[in-house]
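does this look right to u?? zinc ion version
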Amino acid sequence: MILPVLKYGHPVLRQKGARIEAITPEITRLIEDMLETMYAAAGVGLAAQQVGIPLQLTVIDVKDVRDRPSTLEIGSHPATIHDHMPLVLINPELKPLGKPVVGPEGCLSFPELYADVERPESVDVTAMNGRGETIRFRCGGLLARAVQHETDHLHGILFIDRMSSETKKELKPELDVLQETTKAALKKGAKDQ
Ligand code: ZN
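got this back:
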C-alpha cells in the first residue's frame, strides 16, 4: 500500500523514533508499504517518520542511480550494490569516516527542493535488517549520503538542519510557504474530523 508522505511542517518529522526490538507482522507490513511508497515516489530513501510513524526504521535503494556512484564494503571486502538493495535499516548506528564532502540532496518531505549539504564521505553502519539479523557494512558516495540523511530523520533531524546558513537563508521563502501549507492542511484536517 502506498502511504502518504508527510511534508515539512508536520510535527512527526521532528520526533525521535522509538527503537524496534522485534520484527512483528506489523513491522513487516510497514517495511513493505514503505518500500512501495519510496519506489512510487522515485526516492532513494524513506524514513518511518515520513509516513507518520516515529520508529527507528528506514528503507534505502540507490541501485538505479547511475550518475552518482556508491561504494559498499562488507567485512572489508567490496560488495556489489545491486546484490544488497533495497536496504532495510532498523535502529541504525553510524560511525562517520573520512572528510566531509559537499553534495546535492533532496527529500521527499520537501518536494522540488534541492540544496548542497556537507557530510562525511563514508560511514560504518551497524543495524538490524528486516529479518531481525544484525548487519554491518561500510559505505561511501551516494549510499553514505542516503544512510546519513535517513538516519537523521530517525532522530527528528532534517537536511535543512545540515545546510549552511547562507543556503538556508536563500531557501527560507520556499521553506516558509511549505511549512505554512502543511500546518494549514493539518488544521483543516483536525476541523473536518
Ligand atoms: Zn528526507
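The pocket of zinc ion is lined by residues 107-109, 149, 153 (CB under 6 Å). idk if thats expected tbh
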